[in-house]
Design a protein that fits this description.
The chain is mainly beta and 572 residues long. The chain has helices at residues 530-541, 557-569; strands at residues 4-6, 32-35, 60-61, 70-72, 77-83, 92-102, 108-117, 120-123, 125-129, 134-139, 145-152, 158-168, 193-202, 213-220, 232-235, 242-249, 255-265, 275-281, 289-296, 301-308, 314-316, 334-335, 346-347, 357-360, 365-369, 377-385, 401-409, 415-424, 429-433, 440-444, 450-458, 463-468, 471-476, 494-498, 505-515. It folds into 4 domains: 17-168, Jelly Rolls, CATH 2.60.120; 179-308, Immunoglobulin-like (Sandwich); 314-515, Jelly Rolls (Sandwich), CATH 2.60.120; 530-569, no CATH class.
Length: 572
Amino acid sequence: MSLRIHFFAHSAVIAAALTTCWVAPACADQKTYFRDNAPTAAQDPHSDVYDADTNPTGWRDLAGGNTSPHTVPVGGAIYFGFMNNENPEEKKTVQLKLNWINGTPGKFKNPKAVGHTSSGPVAGYVSSVGSKTSISAHWKECPAWEYITLANASNQPQSVTISTTVSGSPTTPAFCAEPTRESSGSLGDTLDTLALNDVQLTIPSELTDPIQLTQLAVFPMHLETNPGVPPLLDAEPFTGQWLSQFVTQSPLGDPMPQGGFLFQSDGQGLSEFDRYSLQFAMHGHADALYAMFAFDAISGLWYDFEIDLRDPPWYDSFDNHHAGDVLHDLRGWSGWDDDPAFDAPVQQSVHQSPPNAVRIADDADLVHPFQGADEGAWRFSAWQYIPSDFVSGGGGNFAGTYLNLLNTYEPGGPYHWSVQIQFNANNGLCRVFHGDGTDRVSIPYETDRWVEIQTIIDLEEDWTRVYYDDELITEYAWTGGVLGDGGGQLDIAAMDLYAQGSSPVYYDDLLLVPIESCRPDINNDHQLDFFDVQSFLSQFANQTFLADWNRDTVWDFFDVLGFLDAFTAGCP
């Protein structure tokens, strides 16, 4: 296999490692900036800093992440800028909370997000919730810096205070690199060995200086190293002879209680073009997460990074296919009941992330089974594009195209659905079927733009929430089924994209990932605040499943008390 390790100016991280701004060292110096005039690519928040005398239109440091009362005139705009902290592996997410002082809430129309890389601008992805009072944006291309534009499209000034938070998503895989992984224990018949075969060091284009790695140190994070089994680092003879020693301290002086090995060359060491293999043993089973350090003899610096061999979350952007490929029997996809007649093609004419997306139309009934999503909490998300000329297939109340999740699926049966989301051109509605009979929640669907559909699934507590364009649609029991059948399994068995003879609808960037459950985070913005309390009280007034907090089918003081207790306790 080829494990690609990406080095950066201060650290390097295997792309499978998920970073969060509240723990990553690079995030400690995160700052937010704002200005009242449109920036150019050269006017980034680092180089174009505000100065009252020499640069009065530059980026102002938003200390504390909150603006004072700020007025945006008619036709004007405010811009919020963010640096990427020299960590291009991190998927940046930005959250803006808007509090109106004067004007009309929601009058900043169509917020835009732009990022800049060395190769040019890249688009960000924006969603708005709470009547445009909460705005979220992220950048999958991981640019060096980003900004969000809020333009006043009304006929009156808008006076607001705006608070910002910036984080790396703890639930989304990094999108900037996709290393190949190999499980430990690949050599021999034991499962106690870290085995990396044919490893290659890859240097990003921003780091133009050569490297000469003469020392490597590797430490398992959870399981004890077995120093009684000789380790091995095998490389080309011209890199020198590699000697090893057992160590319990990192090269940076930190104690490493599980122990590890330091490998040192007596020759020129490794460049980014050289390959090597490495293995050493642990007691019992092999770890899946390791700290690794590399010494560059040219710069005299140690680089630290992670080796993450855990099974990655499921993610498919369809970008590893060629346009025109049909997906049956590719990357886990199949037609319903394993029948290629229900296949669907990859195409390039419409996409959320370039270059590809999948086209669901006509006879398409495309299934992707899942394995291992049978405990804990999960988030499933999909980006969907419905053209304005969309035409539904089928008839009656069930006409249209569908996005479904099943808790039981085997080719030929049995089947059991937990999420059934219908898009019907005959009435322009998105309907989420659930509960008894044909219970459903209906809202208008969007056309001619990409919209994110999310479901949060807690298999421990047996509930799921469905969000459309960041708006909460409904919550109900995962095992309750969609048409009153009940008796479902606590398992996420498969997803299904079903056209039912409809005209084309497109999907991109599909994701299933484990998360830490946070039941009181009702609006799914990864923060507990007034908006969650407001959402709960609205659900309580309507006596929804979500607001029956103690699940006794009675809406009373004990439900409110239960929610407030969970809200106060916070989330992981």
